[in-house]
Amino acid sequence: MTVRRQPVATKAQKQRWANAKARGCVACHLNGIDHGLARASYGNDLEMHHLLSGGRRIGHDATICLCHFHHQAKRLPYADHGYEEQAKALGPSLERESRRFHEFYGTDQQLLAYQEVMLMSLPPQFGPEATW
Question: What Pfam families does the record point to (predicted)?
Answer without folding.
Answer: RecA_dep_nuc
